[in-house]
């Protein structure tokens, strides 16, 4: 297959989609759903017009880059006035809801996947616990949704994938037998402190230093024109790359960096972020397209009724029940709880975690990959189709009333 054939098809798809992107964003058929669908259609298992010959590592790197930029730009746009009023909601979602999601997912996986080891089951539960900031963008940027709900979901999705990284590394080490049982307790406390702590410090420091340099340069007219699209991308990837290099969570660093940059930057911010968001969308489009070209083979490995049942449970009961439980006592409306519980899409972070697990060649790899991949695909389909209609309906129902 000619590389120019592949280039032509991808470029043509990007061009055509760009012509109608703004219109499609207002419909149920948009974003990742289109990218994955076109990738599947043109991929080697269907028409065979595109074979990117990319391995899991390549898709993982694309997903990491897209997610890092998305986390940085989304958190930079956070409304701190709203966050101060509702900080208890995202705090509960992260500190209570996330652990409950992992525990409930583990319990149900234990009942369904009787052939997997405890640590492999724990991996599935943890890999599917974090929500995806990129897939959830259709909701968290929709003005029809009350600001309190948008900011809560944005902060949750921005931090939960980074929090899950040390947990996944812990279970991978135990499942692969690379850590003795006597060392597991030490590892359990060491990993979160290192991974989350390093990510937080790196994001904070780079955003303060880089943001100051960028604001100073912009105020003197040293950065303008086409260069406006570069600084935020470079700063976001610097946060991610340095944190990963030092053994921390690049996702935490990207989110904290964006939050800090947004808090300290008052002028030129919108101009810088608009340019960066276009790049984030482009990388995300390529990631989902590449994922679509290889996903059919992943979906078929280890497929059985248990995998499908767990995927459905992961998007419904395992996500929604912990959200409702952790927000008891906050006086939220029932439709708000259901809305927040439903919009917990799984996507780029889970793709990265899948590649991490595949590299370990665990005995239950096929089942683990199938369970996570089917959940991602169902999320792309169901959350993609329901995002705009439900956001519009929920926004109209709530109106100016308390959430």
β-strand number: 0
Give a short account of the largest sheet: none
CATH topology group = Na+/H+ antiporter like fold
* Proportion of helical residues: over 70%
Terminus-to-terminus distance: 54 Å
What is the second-level CATH architecture?
Up-down Bundle
Number of domains: 1
Beta strand %? under 5%
Count of separate DSSP helical elements:
17
CATH class descriptor? Mainly Alpha
The overall average pLDDT, rounded, is: 86
Evaluate the radius of gyration.
21 Å
- Give the structural class: mainly alpha
Q: How would you sum up this structure, described in words?
A:
There is one protein chain. With 403 residues, the protein is mainly α. It is 76% helix and 0% strand. The protein contains 17 helices and no strands. The protein has helices spanning 3-24, 32-42, 56-76, 80-86, 88-112, 118-127, 137-140, 147-175, 181-219, 231-245, 250-264, 269-300, 305-315, 317-326, 334-342, 348-358, 365-398. Helix 6 (118-127) runs parallel beside helix 17. It is globular.
